[in-house]
Structures are given as structure tokens and as C-alpha cells.
Amino acid sequence: MIxxxxxxxxxxxxxxxxxxxxxxxxxQRQAARSLYRQLSQHPLFRRARHIALYxxxxxxxxxxxxxxxxxxRGKATxxxxxxxxxxxxxxxxxxxxxxxxxPNRFGIAEPAFCRARQRRIWALDLVLMPLVGFDEHGGxxxxxxxxxxxxxAYRTRRKKGHKPTLLGLAHESQKVDRLPxxxxxxxxxxxxxxxxxxxxxxxxx
Length: 205
Known about the structure:
By secondary structure, the chain is of the alpha/beta class.
């Protein structure tokens, strides 16, 4: 576990990204299998009909086995897609098995933009989110672009309703003792790693 005290968010982000990029291909495959075992039979995953995931980049833990399992079970699966304009906006678009993807401006594969196949984030059941760092209190440190935080900003205004469930996915090595959070950061109900679950107080498991 990394101690965050005395580190700025950019410095902490650099350290955590370097750590996950040092993982070998074998370690990444093992972590992906372990993550799959942690989540595939969990009630949150089994009950969800509309699930958003991501494609791994920059050493992120790989949720593609979960994506394939969700599709095998007939669930609707979604990937984040960046808007051409405004460039700060991200939407969630349904993806089918074996669909052709193309790289976005960050080099991350995504489906071709199609408004008819998009779903509002509040209408999803489960969002499996990438992250750079996490703590046991629901804190999430992202890549710094703010795409997820902007997409989920409505949650700070809503007093009722709990959709979607937000789960961070991470390698165990991305755990931090306590993250310095900004006012716009959206907290997670739990983070799932290759080793186990970290649910915030009042979160979910």
C-alpha cells in the first residue's frame, strides 16, 4: 500500500501508473482471471442488466473476461465513448460481441459514435470504472481528465436514487492509505481488486 501523505495528486498519479505498468503480461493475465472470479458470480453482477465497462489501457486491470461473460449471459454491455464536441464529454454506448472498434484521441479503442445506441449513465445498473489509485473509503484517483466525474456529477444533486452502482477495478498495488480528494471527485461504493473487495462504510458488498 502506498502512503499518500506529502505527495501531490500528480506525483501520486505518476507513482501509481508506473507501478501498474511494471506488471508483466503474465501478472496482468493472472490479475484479470482473479478479478473475474471476484465479480462474475457476485449478486451485483448477476442482477445487473445494463453494465458499463472499459477496455484496459496504461496497465489497467483487464475487465474483458467480465465483458465477454456479461455478453454470454445476454446482458447489455456498454463502453465509454468520447464526444467529438464538447471534447470534455463522455457517453456510454452499447457494444456487441466482435464489434469493430477504432482508437480515440487517447489511443483507446472505442465503438464508432452512434447516438441511437447510447444510454444515459443514470439508466445503467452497474458501472465498472478504471482508476489509478483507490482507498478503503470510496476514494478514487483517475487519470486526471475528469470524464467520469463530469458524467456522474448529477449524483451530488440527487437526494434519492442509487443507480448506477459504481465499482472501481484495480490491481491490489494501486491501494493508497488515504486519497486527497477534490470537491468534484465522485466516490465509489466499492473497489474490487485481484485480491478482494474494499467497500466504503455504508457501501456495498
